[in-house]
Amino acid sequence: MARKKFRGRNLSGLLLLDKPPGLTSNQALQEVKKIFFAKKAGHTGSLDPIATGILPICFGEATKFSQFLLDTDKKYQITCRLGTKTTSQDSQGEITETLAVPDLTPEQIKKELKNFLGPQMQTPPMHSAIKVNGKPLYKLAHQGKEIERQARPIEIYSFEMVKILDKQTLLLEVHCSKGTYARTLIADLGDNLGCGAHVSGLRRTGFGAFNIEETVSMDKIHELYRQQDDFTGLNKLILPVDETLRNIDKIELSPDEKFYILQGQPIQVNQPVKEGLLRMYFKDEFIGIGQILDDGRLGPKRLIKRENP
């Protein structure tokens, strides 16, 4: 279907894409943005090219809230290949060492997985998008350079074995905090087991309050794109803007409270509220996100653009 060369549609909302393998997160974003003819779009939470699974794509006003998605926990299903270490800690890297794999029992593996539970510090891999002096680490890694990286706090909530596929291959599931590198987790597991390991398959199955069953495949998007030219089917795939904040509590505003919030002024709320962030609504209309201030008042943090405030 041909598209006129305009700037794009003023589309707002959230698409939960099931990213296919072989694409970078940015390549998947650009393809989706083009198909939906969206004026503004961005992805949240990069996935490696070999990885599949939940990649939230925010359109328009939803991009204002993408940071709150980044701060959520994640779940992954990992295929772990024992006996081989690679430069990138996954199957895309060059093999650096091959070791014999001992006869491991399920009990031995589960015991080792338990050792990873809880808060800890993790050093990001060189093959990552983290920037040092404005340059992504992976670009330095491709030049054969390795620099010192600062360890970052993460937390592993659960780390379980689904099954032993063969002597060298494990299927694992992990529930972890933001900023956790599954590749590094597997590399560390391989070292602890004494045989090395790398990730040969990775699928993100959970992203905060979202699960893999809610995603839309790229094949489905292409199918709808071919079927019609009025975006009706494609638009039905997009969730409302406030779905980006699904895991944050809601508060209903009165007409006066809404007025002051839209003027950028904090309000005193006459209902029990928790500390932190709140989704704000007026008669079920999403207004934006507010934050409880030190004095107990609710102040606007990020508001959506409204045609008739």
Would you give an account of this structure?
The protein is an alpha+beta fold and 309 residues long. It has three domains: 13-71 and 210-243, 2-Layer Sandwich (Pseudouridine synthase), CATH 3.30.2350.10; 74-207, Pseudouridine synthase (2-Layer Sandwich); 248-303, PUA domain (Archaeosine Trna-guanine Transglycosylase, Chain: A, domain 4), CATH 2.30.130. 21% of the residues lie in helices and 34% in strands. It has eight helices and 18 strands. The protein has helices at 25-36, 66-70, 106-114, 137-142, 182-193, 218-227, 232-235, 255-262, and strands spanning 13-19, 41-43, 52-59, 74-82, 84-86, 95-98, 118-122, 131-132, 135-136, 152-166, 169-176, 197-207, 210-211, 216-217, 250-252, 277-282, 285-292, 298-303. The strands form four sheets. Strands 1, 2, 3, 4, 7, 10, 11, 12, 13 and 14 form a ten-stranded mixed sheet that branches. A four-stranded mixed sheet has the order 15-16-17-18, with helices on one face. Strands 5-6 form a two-stranded antiparallel sheet. A hairpin with an 8-residue loop joins strand 2 and strand 3.
The average pLDDT value, as a whole number, equals: 90
CATH fold field value of the largest domain: Pseudouridine synthase
Query: What string, H for helix and E for strand, traces the elements in order?
Result: EHEEHEEEHEEEHEEHEEEHHEHEEE
CATH superfamily of the largest domain: Pseudouridine synthase
Number of domains: 3
Write down the Rg: 22 Å
What kind of sheet is the major sheet?
10 strands, mixed
CATH architecture title of the largest domain? 2-Layer Sandwich
How many β-strand stretches?
18
The share of residues in helices is: 10-25%
Q: Kindly, what is the distance between the CA atoms of the first and last residues, rounded to a whole number of angstroms?
A: 36 Å
Structural class, from helix and strand content?
alpha+beta
Shape: globular
Low-confidence stretches: none
**How many separate helices?**
8
Instruction: Report the portion of residues in β strands.
Output: 25-35%
CATH class of the largest domain: Alpha Beta
